[in-house]
Design brief:
The structure holds 2 protein chains of 2 kinds. Chain A is mainly α. Chain A is built from 13 helices and 2 strands, in the order ααααββααααααααα. Chain A has a domain of 212 residues. In chain B, strands 1-2 form a two-stranded antiparallel ribbon. Chains A and B meet through helix 3, helix 4, helix 9 and helix 13 of A and helix 6, helix 12 and helix 14 of B.
Amino acid sequence: MDILFASIVSGVLIGMVLALVALGLTIIFGVMDIVNFAHGEFLMVGMYTGLLTAQATGMDPLFALPVAAAVGFALGILCYAGFIKFLLRGPMIAQLLGTFGLMLVLRNLALLFFGSEDRALHHGLLVGKSFDVGMGVILSATKLATAVLSILSFGAVWLLINRTRIGKALTATALNRQGARYMGIPTERMNMLAWGIGGATVTIAGALIVNFWSVTPYVGLIFTMIAFTVVALGGFGSVPGAFFAGLVVGLIMEIPGFWDFLQLTFRIGWMADVPMISFKYTWIYVAYFVIMLISPRGLFGWKQ
Amino acid sequence: MEAVRNALDFSDFPKSDLAVALVVLILLFCFPLFSFSAFAMATMIQFFIFSLYGMGWNTIGGYGGQVDLGKAQYVGIGAYTTMVCLLRWDIPFWISMPIGACLAISWSFIIGYPLFKLKGHYFAIATIATSLVLKDLFEVWKFVGAARGLGILPYKYHPPDFWRLIFKEDIYYYYIIFAFFIVGLLYMNWFRKSRLGYQLRSIKDNEEVARSLGINVHWAKIKTYAIATAFVSIVGSFHAVYIKNIEPEDTMSLDISILIALMAMLGGAGSLWGPVIGAGVLIPLKSYLKEWLGATAGLLGIDLILYGLIIMIISAFEPRGLWGIIEKKRRRRRS
């Protein structure tokens, strides 16, 4: 029973931050119909920013969030103005491969500057601390703080999109680009803003994740796939969808835990032989495939 | 006979193109006679391998316009079938290669049927997902060596072994893959003029119109996907005996899938020469950049940075690839 509760709690907590990871992707897709393969690499940039800021200044990594957000915002804008703008004119395959090129560049720049070794945070206010909530659930302080801060960031972006003039302009651009331009909305600048917000949210998520996840230049791909799955489940372009889908995908990532629970509770011998932990991420790909087949629009999708 | 005549018929290309192609072919044929370094030889073999992969991708991705980023799984199926057959049951290459192709094609039908219900980005990401699932399976499957992969020990056999394709010198591999290359080129020449080829191009232009003309769109895509798969898996088998050591990471990773798509894309997707041009530019560039900048200068990853920049520039400014640039120039001269 303990394993079950621990897995559920852990899945929900990680799900919050996955929702934040996917938020940028869904905003970008919603506004301009482009899938960003470099999304996981943006997250990696955020992780390195958080880590290096914390190490350089000696502050707690949680205080590196504004730095990470600023870096992400700048990176998003830079990528849009310098590259994506030109990409949008081309066919879809050029867009896919183009963002893949961006991913290669970012990943290998990180490799060039930071080397290939694993880096992790060893100190900080919360790193390594945990409390026992009972029923076998041990909450690590970093994961809890990450989840709470993720919800806060998510809420802030949601408010920005739904309650401000800029957000309305962004939504209008997503719904109907031509119409928005006739209404006097600078759609080009809205695209740029979408990339800025997308970059900032994902780097914040990165700076949060680095509290409990070691970083290498290769960490991006798995998060790109996770983000794709979250966005597919929630519906491409849907912000609330990303939140709920994040939770679901967080739970999917805990499938090895549930597997252990079943195996231990019902004492099923053969289940112990399956190295389920090696398939931790496989279920995410499977989930993407299944979601796409059952409902290509996802839970809350409005784009076809 | 009709098919053979069609495959050999290049008359719809301008004479100058054919002359260039012929010169290049003769140069390629004579290449091993000049004594270049072993490195150059290995690079040329990689060039053939990847131009064949690119040709396979070009059927579905170039002519059909379906962006498939999961071709590496079929490289893996082909390579692993050959390897397992050789190591476990001593089945030679020329028998295990068709077996591998059959397995790959069966798998392509199984996943192709649901896959082609998707379109655009959704399809592209789904192909990546299937490919990664298969890679994860191979990484824990003990029978195929799990994450460490499988390796041939060449001294166990008696090279040159034409039956199992195990040689000491690269020159044998060179001419065998060269023969594959010619066959592949002729097949593609036939394919682009075949019924399926025309159907695919109409699907690429407008699926609704194609359907209204009575083309079974879904089936046409699945068939073409199987053709692309056969190409990739056969060359994958060759890759296994040539490299002699395969792991899931270097046969089935996403990077291989993308590289395959890139060959065709850089050269010009949907044209006969596209994948060949693309591989001819990219593969030497990649291996020499890696040699000079990566190994010699000790700058980790700088080759891939330049590589990524090339991809970015091509996709942003000339999405029709190098062949597109040539055609544009030609059109300008004509008008």
